[in-house]
Amino acid sequence: MDEELKSLIKVWVSAIISISYCYYLPPIIKSGVPRFLSVSPVLALFLVLPLFFSSVHLSLITAFFLTWLANFKLILFSFDKGPLIPIPSNLPRFFCFACFPIKAQQNPKSQNHLSKLVFAIKVAIFGLLLHLYSYRQHLSPTVLLCFYFVHLYLEIEIILTFVKVLVFISLGCGLEPQSNKPYLATSLQDFWGRRWNLMVPAILRPAVYAPMRRVSERRMSSGWALFPGILAAFIVSGLVHELLFFYLTRETPTGEVTLFFLLHGVCTAAELAVKKKTTVMERWRLSPAVSRLLTVGFVFVTGGWLFTPQLKRSGVMERFTIEAVLIVEFVKEKLFT
């Protein structure tokens, strides 16, 4: 644990120095290829930093924050696009908005008691899951897979909520939610575009979808040009997840997770094509409850088929759950003893 904490300090000090360098570039180097070349050493560094950890959690968090989010934001920043434009007013804000999955809220609203209650329930369920892992030898593979999915969702929600609170305290500005009840999604478009991990589609739209759509519009109508953009965004997401899986497993990518996102891209595009046929939609309109069941069920089944197998084979899922228990015990020991 001590070695991991030392690595954590080194990695994030490096990140702070790198982001500070990027913050002071615009007055010196114009946007476009010159600025991109100037930030490219930072992009390369952020590709390496997750390898400094042996902890699954620290590797994943660092890879998501720096390799995934920060790198894409800095690439967009190089061309005066994305969430870092207009440039935040000071370095701390620039660092937070570059590295963390946060977005300033346009119309700040006070947090209601219901959202706090929901968060408390999520924490309680997460604690119950950690306890149930003690009986994993008695659980069927299907039940254990369900637990893994719920665990992954809840832990992401809890970690990102803590990040959001810390950033809010530091910056004093309202922040958009990181997700929007993905378990209530009524379609794949709804799940991936408006509910799950909202910062990722917010980056993929200007970085991948929009450029691909503009290129496609030269060869097809604007109504159909969105489909290559959708597929490109899902493929890029799949490739990035392959990289994230490499950081976790340190094994050669298998392509399964890319296939998962390609499948969802094709299905999302097909879903949109069907929605364009108003007569079909009127005839086959489903109730929200059925739509939610089908959507979440499809994500779960395809996730069990293509998303989790590599993580299970490499033992990452088991390490992930064991680490979570150890981290909770470590925090409890430091806070209550």
Automatic annotation (TrEMBL):
Keywords: Acyltransferase, Lipid metabolism, Membrane, Transferase, Transmembrane, Transmembrane helix
InterPro entries: Wax_synthase, Wax_synthase_dom, Wax_synthase_Magnoliopsida
Subcellular location: Membrane
GO biological process, one term: lipid metabolic process
Topology class, membrane: Multi-pass membrane protein
Transmembrane feature ranges: 7-26, 117-135, 147-171, 224-248, 254-274, 286-307
Family from the record: Belongs to the wax synthase family.
Protein name in the entry: Long-chain-alcohol O-fatty-acyltransferase 5
Organism the protein comes from: Cardamine amara subsp. amara
Organism phylogeny: Eukaryota, Viridiplantae, Streptophyta, Embryophyta, Tracheophyta
